[in-house]
């Protein structure tokens, strides 16, 4: 196996082995139950800011069912966002013509916002491979809606059957459980490939 995690059989992520890109995936996979890939790291842009969601996670409950998988692939990962040790976060959004242009989070009381989602990722339709996550600019921060929410965030990532890296994500959905609410709600639902 090479350093990139590829073998003749395909890329390995957590407890799942994907098909090699040269192998045609069977259509029957679309009817298989959705399955969370266990032990997988998050996509690179979330490194150090996410923990695998467990079955008791209220914010990730809907994502763990896998209904968000827009291409109906059976393989997914689901993470809770944790920033500087905080699972309860402050959430802000820059709104665009089509809804959320940037979804950002920060540890309570921090001045440093982290972009969890940018609509440009979905517009480019090229998975999360090569996504650059520089700190948010002062201009972007100034555009954050003044109605800052506090709550927990979970992100689900759908993977195609022939994924070649942890960043080879075809769909992502972000749910948030805002303080005072009983159930999480979908904030972002984006096709990436």
The general outline is globular
Number of strands: 11
Range of strand content: 25-35%
Number of domains: 1
Give an account of the 3D structure.
The structure is a single chain. A hairpin with a 2-residue loop joins strand 1 (12-13) and strand 2. The strands form two sheets. Strands 3, 4, 5, 6, 7, 8, 9, 10 and 11 form a nine-stranded mixed beta sheet that branches. The chain is globular. The chain has 193 residues and is mainly β. It starts with 11 loop residues before the first strand and ends with a strand. The chain has one domain (30-191). The chain is built from three helices and eleven strands; from the N terminus they run ββββαββββααβββ.
Explain briefly what this protein structure is.
With 193 residues, this protein is mostly beta strands.
Describe how the helices and strands are arranged.
Elements: E1 12-13, E2 16-17, E3 35-36, E4 50-52, H1 61-64, E5 75-81, E6 89-96, E7 99-106, E8 114-118, H2 119-124, H3 138-142, E9 149-158, E10 171-178, E11 185-191
Parallel strand pairs: 3-5
Antiparallel strand pairs: 1-2, 4-5, 5-9, 6-7, 6-9, 7-8, 9-10, 10-11
């Amino acid at each position: 196996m090479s350093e990139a995690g590829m073998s003749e059989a395909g890329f390995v992520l957590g407890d799942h082995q994907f098909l090699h890109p040269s192998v045609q995936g069977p259509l029957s996979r679309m009817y298989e139950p959705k399955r969370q890939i266990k032990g997988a790291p998050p996509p690179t842009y979330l490194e150090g800011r996410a923990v695998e969601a467990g079955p008791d996670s209220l914010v990730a409950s809907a994502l763990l069912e896998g209904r968000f998988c827009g291409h109906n692939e059976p393989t997914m990962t689901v993470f809770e966002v944790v920033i500087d040790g905080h699972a309860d976060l402050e959430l802000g959004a820059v709104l665009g013509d089509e809804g959320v242009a940037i979804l950002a989070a920060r540890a309570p009381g921090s001045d440093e916002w982290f972009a969890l989602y940018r609509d440009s990722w979905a517009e480019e339709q090229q998975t999360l491979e090569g996504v650059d996550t520089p700190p948010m600019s002062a201009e972007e921060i100034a555009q954050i809606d003044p109605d800052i929410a506090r709550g927990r965030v979970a992100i689900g990532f759908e993977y195609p059957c022939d994924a070649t890296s942890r960043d080879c994500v075809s769909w992502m959905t972000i749910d948030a459980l805002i303080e005072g609410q009983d159930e999480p709600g979908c904030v972002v639902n984006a096709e990436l490939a």
